[in-house]
Amino acid sequence: MNAYVGTPTSRVDGRAKVTGTAKYAGEFTADGLVHGFVVEATIPRGRIVRLDTSEALKVAGVLDVLTHANRPSLADKDEAWKDEVAPEGSPFRPLYDDLIRFNGQPIALVVAEEWETAKFAATLVLVDYEQDGFATDLEAERGSASEMDKPHRPRGDAKGALAAAALRHEADYLIPTEHHNPMELYATTTVWESDGKLTVYDKTQGVQNVHKFLCAVFDKKPDDLRVISPFVGGAFGSGLRPQYQVVLATLAALALKRSVRVVLTRRQMYGLGHRPMTIEHVALGARPDGTLDAVTHEAVAVTSRYEDFSRNDTGWAEQLYKSPNSHFSHKLVDLDVSTPCDMRAPGAASGVCALECAMDELAVALKLDPIELRLKCYSDRDQSEDLPYTSKQLRECYARGAEAFGWARRTPAPRSMRDGKELVGWGMATGVWEALQMPVAVRIVLTSNGHAEVSCAASDIGTGTYTIVAQVAADALGLPIENISVRLADSALPQAPVEGGSWMAASSAHAVLGAAEDIRQELARLAKAMPDSPLAHLDAANVALVDGMIGRNGAAVSIADVMRHSNIERIEKEKLNQFAEDKSHARNTHSAVFAEVKVDEQLGVIRVTRVVSAVAAGRILNTKTARSQILGGVVWGIGMALHEETAMDHRFGRIMNANIAEYHIPVNADIHDIDVIFVDEPDDRINRLGIKGLGEIGIVGVPAAIANAVYHATGKRIRRFPITLDKLLD
Amino acid sequence: MNNFQYSRASDVADAIRLLAADPGAKLIAGGTNLIDLMKENVERPSRLIDISRLPLRDIEETADGGLRIGALVPNSDLAYHPLIEQRYPLLASAILAGASAQLRNMASVGGNLMQRTRCPYFYDTTTPCNKRSPGMGCSALDGLNRNHAILGTSESCIATSPSDMGVALAALGALVHIAGRTGDRTIALTDFHRLPGDKPHIDTNLGSGEIITAVELPPQGFARNYSYLKIRDRLSYAFALVSVAAALELEGNAVSEARLALGGVAHKPWRSLEAEAALRGQAATPDHFGRAADLLLQGATARSHNGFKIELARRAIMRTLMQATSATPQSQSHKKIA
Ligand SMILES: Cc1cc2nc3c(=O)[nH]c(=O)nc-3n(C[C@H](O)[C@H](O)[C@H](O)COP(=O)(O)OP(=O)(O)OC[C@H]3O[C@@H](n4cnc5c(N)ncnc54)[C@H](O)[C@@H]3O)c2cc1C
Ligand code: SF4
Q1: Banded model confidence at residue A579, pLDDT cuts 50, 70, 90
Q2: Degrees, nearest 5: CA angle A379-A383-A389
Q3: Do B2 and A123 touch (CB under 8 A)?
Q4: How much distance in Å is there from the Cα of B31 to the middle of ligand 1?
Q5: Residue-number span of the structural domain to which B36 is assigned
Q6: Is residue A473 very low, low, confident or very high in pLDDT (cuts 50, 70, 90)?
Q7: Which of B90, B309, B219, B268 is nearest to A725 (CA)?
């Protein structure tokens, strides 16, 4: 029964959020709470030779200044610092030693009774460095790139086929460094409980990841600390790994035996992870009819000197476009920056952007409509493993998107459409992401008053996990959604991985189904055992939970009656849902994105006046929260195309626009019509509910669709993002 | 942020007294610029003298038919004041092109004129900057200077003045009323801001111990043929790459009076009497606009990343003059360029 699944159910936590009762990590408090303020390194590489805290310590209200020299002990093995999603390498350890690895690295924590006091005293900490030579410029260091493991097996002879191809398009596309800039600043409140245990309120995408990490770093037993993160004000991947403020707050709490809060400043947030700058080199070889002979894609990406962060930028052509020959490589350049991290649609947002701009360039060279080219190359199989898809309604996305957009009215020549002083451009691109699922456990406690509490350690990073868990539980238990309460993001709750990769909707929903099924069975057993049970002759496997009753075809009893008769106050079931590994099919979500830009011909000012995003992502659990996800992705894609860029001065190895006045993201004026279409995509193979998840797919393809529209409008092909107006002027 | 004393001035004379008594003191009005700079440790005043409650919030007509605007009139009140909307719409438009509604609600007229450059090196105490620390050098000369000045620069500093309001005031020929220990004085807005020269740490000709009390607008408001066009990296809430204030008096198709000022290109709102003179008496045609643009941009020089501004400014000037001529001023709410 689906009273809720598939409907536009409003967020169950919406009211708490808009009325301010939803508490975030930096809002929890405790008796005697004190405040830590971070002192950052101001050079990118070197060694601290003197760190003088005496003046800071003299300030009234300052309790301590923690540095590498006086801190309590921290684990000394890399293994302890490796969280669930750590890349290869030696993770950064705050206040561990005197080495400076990136500009903005925390080097001291001033702890004071008041936050302002700590902040002021932080300016009095004196540091002398011995500076080493450093490098932060990817383009300058491109030559030192080293190859990572091949993301995909090469097929055929791509190089040869490319050389022999009738038509070849080859270019570099440059995606700059970008920062996540979630609205909520990174914050941790570590509460020193009366028994010496710690309750850590942290902004994170994975409380159990942080829990395990802290236990290892501080050599604690699992029971000694608990990590809670009920609400997250945006994270977008920046909270997948434990961030350094959680270490600092906990370190200070242990040092002072007091509750400590550490909130980073906006500038300090730029010392965390980021979308690495990449040079994406794409080469396509085609026959005159538009079929592909060869695809090669090489990404050269930034990483830090201490960890090898890499993602799948390049392999997406294997899923999208048929080609007998292909070759992909991912190279890293070690620079004196903090380790990059996942950021919405990591890899795909950058790599597919390049691929889809390249496809557009190829379509122009072939004088083919961009959709026609994509249909000619359409791949019904994932070529890397030669597998069919569980479902792939991408053709339908092209068709529905094109129709809603009015694509048929497009005149192909660049600069051929205009509206007064503005050139009009229509561009399109394909989006693709994975449909992942992970083991998640859920506990349901059903009480005789007809209420159920559903709990799980998963986070809701603003995507709507609270709501979809409640929807699925309400349907599975046959209860009104008001009777479901959901508890999430407490490390003491049943197992969940970090929330990311768009896997949480499918993973948590099926765990809910599993636990609800156990409850149903228990209720069926109890109901059948009732004297004169109307269910006596029914097969327990065939009775359902509907409208607070259990039964079948009119033969039913109320759940409350069953529990009362059985003298049971509560039924508790916990279920770990493991997805059976199915290696026989590829699992992906897809989209077709259409964008209209209007560019002032004289001044180069760009407006994105329309976007249509047609998405195939399996079954949509909640059309309202799902639409919001896609809208957010499209807005971000507009930012990626036109605005976002972390500006580094390579002479100082320092980010110069570390604030959201100068680091531009779109504002309301930049956003016009956005039309989201969910294409029907029944999928009974991927999982029971046919869910794929859609946190990431919304952004993929959007920057390319806009860049392609800008080309169509102006005849100028901009391959260095963001596309700012100066690039259109000459 | 450092610790500071706080005093609330009881009247203008009190503010001047307090300023004189403490050389490290700073006036604070809306606080939207000063507090930011204090948070970054760029400004470290020993004392804040709060002038926000002084009675400098009136907009009054002057004897000659102009307007006198108190230094503490909030930017939004000024932009939406009926006399400004009717008689000086260029000023209203320029104000609305700046910042955000929330900031404009707090920002004052005096504070807006005194706001400091947005040069990123100026804001970051770890990088050399002559404006912040004289003699240290200018990081922007060979650094990230995409949004730096192309006119009136020096080898010491290539920062721009970020004010939008100031550009319209310059075009309108506004006067700045100043009070100080030795009495009151008035200077033209175009003389209020300085060029950086070899003393880029001094933004304006306001003396230490002086306070802006009002800005005065002459009677001529150019309410029919005007436009303020701001070109920026996103469609709202960003500082100007280039902005243009244009105001014309037309007789038929002939220009009888012209005002033209640029923002985002220099250490001060940029006006050229020569450029305006070249328009006077001429037909309002692209040819003459181009000539005026050339004169206004005379001497423009680019550094590594801001060369595009010269051509952008030229095109923006042409466009703004067209908008003014056809009485279709740029709307600040609809972002399509008229
Ligand atoms: C994110 C952001 C975006 C912005 N975007 C824009 C924009 O696009 N365009 C634009 O024009 N502006 C913009 N601004 C700047 C804004 O307009 C100024 O911060 C504001 O006008 C300053 O006014 P205030 O009253 O708050 O000044 P305060 O911060 O109070 O003071 C600023 C300075 O003026 C001095 N001062 C104040 N009043 C007087 C007086 N009467 N006499 C002498 N000195 C005085 C103070 O001592 C101080 O040095 C932006 C600001 C921010 C934070
Ligand atoms: S341009 Fe001026 S403000 Fe910027 S760094 Fe140079 S001296 Fe400082």
Answers
A1: confident
A2: 65
A3: yes
A4: 7
A5: 5-52
A6: very high
A7: B309
**Residue-wise pLDDT tens digits, A592-641:** 999 999 999 999 999 999 999 999 999 999 999 999 999 999 999 999 99
Residues A593 and A603 in one domain: yes
| 3 state SS of B325 | helix
Domains identified in chain B, total number: 2
Query: Cα–Cα distance between A55 and A410 in angstroms, integer?
Result: 68
Same domain? For A565 and A650 the reply is no
Whether B69 is in the pocket of ligand 1, judged by its Cβ within 6 Å, is: no
Question: Is the Cβ atom of B106 under 6 angstroms away from ligand 1?
Answer: yes
- Among A425, A440, A454, A435, smallest CA distance to A496 is for A440
Q: Is residue B58 part of a domain?
A: no
SS3 (DSSP) at A44 = coil
Phi and psi at residue A712, to the nearest 5° = -60, -35
Hey, is the C-beta of B6 within 8 angstroms of any chain A C-beta? no
Choice from B130, B150, B161, B202 to test ligand 2 binding pocket (greatest atom count within 8 A of CB): B130
Closest ligand to residue B116's CA: 1
Structural domain harbouring A405:
278-436+583-728
Place of tokens 């933004």: B203
> Are A321 and A377 within 8 A, CB to CB?
yes
* Helix/strand/coil for B113: helix
Q: Which among A42, A59, A605 is the top mutation candidate for probing chain B, defined by the most B β-carbons within 10 Å of its own β-carbon? A: A605
Give me the mean pLDDT over the A183-195 stretch: 97
pTM of the full structure: 0.97
- Measured between CB atoms, does B82 come within 8 Å of chain A? no
Q: Is the pLDDT of residue A1 over 80?
A: no
Selected for mutation to probe chain B from A107, A270, A649, A663 (highest B CB count within 10 Å) is A649
> Is the same domain home to A200 and A62?
yes
Q: Which ligand is nearest to the CA of B155?
A: 2
Q: What is the mean pLDDT of residues A198-214?
A: 98
Task: Give all strands of the β-sheet with A198-202 in edge-to-edge order.
Answer: A62-67, A106-112, A34-40, A260-263, A187-192, A198-202, A225-228
A605 shares its domain with A684? yes
Ligand 2 nearest atom to the CA of residue B138, by list position? 6
A696 part of the active site: yes
- The residues of chain B scoring below 70 in pLDDT are none
Q: Is the CB of B164 under 6 A from ligand 1?
A: yes
Q: Cβ B126–A654 below 8 Å, yes or no?
A: yes
A479 and A518 both lie in a single domain: yes
Comparing CB atoms, the residue among A603, A654, A666 nearest residue B234 is A666
Q: Measured between alpha carbons, how far is A45 from A98 in angstroms, rounded to an integer? A: 11
For Cα atoms B206, B208, B214, give the angle at the middle one, nearest 5 degrees. 40
Mention every residue, 6+ apart, whose C-beta is less than 8 A from residue B202: B194
Q: What percentage of chain A has pLDDT greater than the value 90?
A: 96
Helix, strand, or coil here: A620?
coil
In-domain check, residue A287: yes
What's the CATH code of the domain at B278? Answer: 3.30.390.50
* Cβ–Cβ below 8 Å for A607 and B235: yes
Query: Across chain B, where does the E strand assignment appear?
Result: 5-8, 25-28, 47-50, 59-61, 67-70, 175-180, 183-188, 211-217, 225-231, 242-251, 254-263, 270-271
Same domain as A112, residue A82: yes
> Out of B124, B312, B316, whose CB is closest to A656?
B124
A484 belongs to a structural domain: yes
Amino acid at B82: P
Domain CATH code at residue A288: 3.30.365.10
For the domain that residue B29 is a member of, what is the CATH number?
3.30.43.10
Judged by a CB distance cut-off of 8 A, whether residue B103 touches chain A is no
- Choosing from A514, A546, A577, the residue where a domain stops is A577
Give the ligand 1 atom nearest the CA of B230: 8
- How many domains does one find in chain A? 3
